[in-house]
Amino acid sequence: MFSKSGQRILVVGDGNFSFAASLVSLYNGDGTNITATSYDAKEVLHEKYSDAKTHIKTLKNSGAKVHFEVDGTRLGAFQGVDPPY
After folding, report:
1. How far apart are CA 29 and CA 74, in angstroms?
2. pLDDT per residue as tens digits for the range 4-26
3. Which of 84, 64, 68, 61 is closest to 20 using CA atoms?
């Protein structure tokens, strides 16, 4: 494994959430320490990426946190992403 036990992982700007979903797979289905974000609104994301809904479901079922409309250049202003990561 590439991270320490209990380490939190923040994925910023994960277009269709496929990268974050692959991390869940790497962690044997446990996404409790993963927070994934997208710059796009949920509706826009579904229009852009036909597979986004599947990845989001995988993340939520694993216990991962999923956030939309997050500007990676302004993470400090976003309530759902709490440091440290």
Report:
1. 30
2. 667 889 999 999 999 999 999 99
3. 64
Instruction: Note whether 84 and 24 are within 8 A (CB).
Output: no
Question: 26-52: b or e for each residue (b if 16 or more CB lie within 10 Å)?
Answer: ebeeebebbbbbbbbeeeebeeebeeb
CA distance 84 to 28: 24
- Report the C-alpha gap between 1 and 37 in whole angstroms: 22
Residue-wise pLDDT for 38-70, tens only, equals 999 999 999 999 999 999 999 999 999 999 999
Q: H-helix or E-strand containing 80? A: none
Q: 41 and 56 in contact (C-beta within 8 Å)?
A: no
Q: Is the peptide bond before 83 cis (omega within 30 degrees of 0)?
A: no
